[in-house]
Design brief:
By secondary structure, the chain is α/β, with parallel strands linked by helices. It has a domain of 226 residues: Rossmann fold (3-Layer(aba) Sandwich). Helices cover 42% and strands 17% of the residues. It has 22 helices and 18 strands. The relative contact order is 0.14.
Length: 501
Amino acid sequence: MYYKSTRNNALRYTASEAILKGLSDDGGLFMPEKLPVLDKSLKELAEMDYRAVAYEVMKLYLTDYTEEELKYCIDHAYDDKFDTEDKVVLHREGNACYLELFHGPTIAFKDMALSILPYLMTTAAKKNELKEEIVILTATSGDTGKAALAGFADVPGTRIMVFYPKDGVSKIQEKQMVTQKGGNVRVVGIRGNFDDAQNGVKAMFNDKELRDELKNRGYVFSSANSINIGRLIPQIVYYVYAYTKLLKEAVIADGEEINICVPTGNFGNILAAYFAKQLGVPVGRLVCASNKNRVLTDFFKSGTYDKLHEMDDKGEFTEKREFMLTSSPSMDILISSNLERLIYLICGEDDFKCAALMKSLVRDGSYEIDESMRGKLKDFSAGFADEEACAAAIKKIYEEDSYVIDPHTAVAAAVYEKYGAESGDTRKCVIASTASPYKFPEAVLKALGADAQGEELTDRLHEISKVNLPAAITELKNAAVLHDTVCDTDEMKEKVREFLN
């Protein structure tokens, strides 16, 4: 299995090479030459644990890793750092099955992929006889940063630098990052939003002069964002595993279609669900749920991706699109980078066409796909939930089921409820529950009508939810701040140079 750039089909890399590079030199994202299908039945997979399912899925994509190498990576990633033996938990309420992806060390879904990425990357470095030290540059909207920092902290042969929007993450998300220990880590807040941070990181990846300068000093850039194919592939696993778990528990029959609803920002998580469908998992509808930053909803409804203008009730892009700070900050994104991979597929893997559309996004702030491409998006539905709908979903689910969810999961729950009412679709739905409510105690307490002022909000939420405080929260209470640097976006490059001394 070789990997190509979405912007240049002539470039071919092995999986390990693509993981090391993170982003193609032409700015494109790596895609497999073909999307594989499972070589074992879902019934067979239903008898396996999470690690075994992970191997059966990932071996189809990472074909230059030996069985021994891949199993080493999987076994070390999915060990006792998770607080449940299954690694993920399915909480069922009627037709909704909440796929809890937050049982790892940073209590967010990013742990599922970022626990294994350091092992995949260091194994790839050995395979390719890489002499340089790997420098991970990552922009985060909240969760990727901490999960990447935790995964790469003190990993030999690597350094990691994370940029986050200073006023665009929750207090707990920020404290998780700025208290991160490790001799090879650095965290920098930027004055701007996530898109500003992401654009700054992409600009450094595309800066040949900077890359050459650092290579001469013994460093090479890579990424831990979901633009790295090594981040995306492990995410496919938990959708396959969710189906097999429902099958084993006789919640569904073999071959029965399910829907999947994902709270979506950078589009990587829902793209992984799409790849799971291509593997052969019987998925009916993929529901893309956005918050008030509804650029993806507008895209799926219109075929136009416009980061500058919002679609009105007539389907016209007339309103100026504002970047909104919401209670679901990991979705506060207007440039969903992983959508490029889907665009590449639906344009028939035409690299020239895909590159032109991405160039239009940079130049004009928008692009429009043609009717033939729109016809290939029939697997998807999309909707958005504003702050009021998000809070209402948290309250309703708690009052009806005594189950507490975080704001990102609530966005998905609200969007899916509306989708079901409008479509009449009664298939069972796996809703990706992407973070613990303890990561956003203020927003959750407000939604529940509880006191959200002062200190010890997590203790107050514990009294309501009756769910034990995760270790990640208790460890934060007395953690010292180790990173306090803040900079403007035009200073990011210099901060990297300072970090590498």
